[in-house]
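Q: Structure tokens for this one, please.
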Amino acid sequence: MANNKPHILIVDDSRVVRRTIVKFLSPYFELTEAENGAAAWQVLRHSSSIELVITDIQMPEMDGYTFICKIRAEDDAGLRDIPIIVITSAEDEVTRERAYACGANDFVLK
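A: Here is the predicted structure, written as tokens:
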């Protein structure tokens, strides 16, 4: 059975945050979860169906900044150009500016 829902990758080290996002978005989207940027990078490298990334900034192993920069530096245009939304509890302007400088398309506060 084919699933025609757009596919979103949710990246956050908090299982509670991931579950909350899944609860609200699952009726409308196919969702894949990752607990940090390193795990998310592996998911992206092996799944061409992901159409959007929602990522936190502060995570272990690979933070959101590094993850976004890694995506934007990718040779594969399909991966490099994927839309990225940052969702974080950091309200300071430096975090927002740095996320945009790395290549985020939008920024949402938790």
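A few notes: The mean pLDDT is 94. The helical segments are 15-25, 37-46, 64-72, 77-80, 93-102.
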